[in-house]
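Many introductory courses stop at the sequence. We go one step further.
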Amino acid sequence: MQETDSSMSRTRFKTPEQLLDFLQKADDGRLTFRAYPISGDAETFRCQGGGIVVRKPDGKSFHSLDDFVCYAFQCDREGYAGTEHVDVEELN
């Protein structure tokens, strides 16, 4: 179950599947968002449509939503998440 923090406009995704479902529904090429890992700095991304996610400002692209979700959840080679959650803040 995803949680929403209305005071900060962030949604917490506790599983890779939750984040993937959210991105699939928003994959119209118009979603810009910031992802907050448990530790480390937040990064800003944009869904380009067609399942492509681009990290701003360096332009690193993930050629599928699955690749991006594995990056966000720090998945190992077998696809198991290495982090407990990812917070997402929509910017548009």
